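ENTRY TYPE: protein
CONTENTS: sequence, structure tokens:
***
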Amino acid sequence: MITQGGNATIVDDDPVPTASIADAQVTEGDVGTVTAAFVVTLSNPSAFPISYRVKTGDGSAHAGADYLATNVVLAFDPGQTSKTVGVPIVGDPFTEWGELFTATLSQPQGVTTIARGSALGDIVDNDPRSGTMAFDPQNWGFSEDTNVDGVYDNINSGIYDVAVRRGAALSR
């Protein structure tokens, strides 16, 4: 009887998955919340579970006022290559410039690394940049200190055009 035998070694030559987080942009509403969706992708699937921490940070947008702070563990099951982290954006009726915050990947668990670990959240304002102010001429006027004695002694009611420039009201 002839017996043949041997040993074989299987080398895992699959590349280690790397994670990247993409920027997110969302238009805020006037009330309630909308969601900024940050997509985290892996360069290739893993045969094992892996995870990362995703945490938001202030920029010109501030947690609590403009968005709700998020600090979660994002877990990938074997074979998964894409997951989404939702960050609630707080609506408001105020005209303002766009605001930014960050979402950062950290604390990789399992056989993995981070390729792009920080993303920008861009909150686009939905409120108009200009408009019309209306005043009832019977209930609105202006006063002047005509003799510069610190007492506003000339009160005029009527119809006025008012121009607003960067926080200063100009009447004519």
Observations:
- The CA atoms of residues 60 and 99 lie 5 Å apart.
- The chain has two domains: 18-124, 141-171.
- The mean pLDDT is 83.
